[in-house]
Structure prediction request, 264 residues.
Amino acid sequence: MIAILGTGKMGEALLSGLLRAGRAPSEIVATARRAERADVLRDRYGVQVMTNAEAAKSADTLVLAVKPQDMAALLAEIAPHVPSGRLVITVAAGITTAFVESRLGEETPVVRVMSNTPVLVDEAMSVISAGAYAAEEHLRHAEDLLRPVGKVLRIPESQQDAATALSGSGPAYFFYLVEAMVDAGILLGMPRAAALDMVTQSIVGAAIMLRDSGEHPVILREAVTSPGGTTISAIAELERHKVRAAFLDAIEAARDRSRQLASG
Prediction:
């Protein structure tokens, strides 16, 4: 049985993904802070909703999906109820495996995961790292849980804050870009709905080309960039406004914030 402790946006996304992947509702339990939220989860997914302590006692795998600032309180609550050797998966940004291990003790196997919201459409990017007591079997189990809802990549835990900034927050950067491009279309006289359709399909098509072609993004961009043409004029403006440097600074800032969350 899998327990998702803290079924907010990301927790619910993982829950729905597991069900779409074929898990039976009877195999999953959820926890929620508010009674009305528990009712929604029961009605929407047919899963059992327990207290954190009950879930910690009964489930074989615990997925900790609370906000980073709530993690210490959750661990203090469940620590007396987590049996030795129970696999714990944390999906909270900035929370290290050592943070969890130090509060649960008993050489608890912990796997740290950073996923992202495309789990809702089975296209998540999930990166996983083993804690001090997590063995190959624990990593494989985490991969089995996550692979049906997207791609899974193993990385050293030292790279987790960078992964949080790059892929964890990554979808937001694309939505921000889409918003800006749609606004540009409106500025040029395009109806909003038409502009959104064109931008969305362009990004979907470009992403699939990048994934499936195996080509470097520079090669794909150059294929669209004719000498003296429209694309190079746009690229020149982006470079003039230092958009590339802004992305570097933004993602570095997200990495730094992930580190701050880890340190409290």
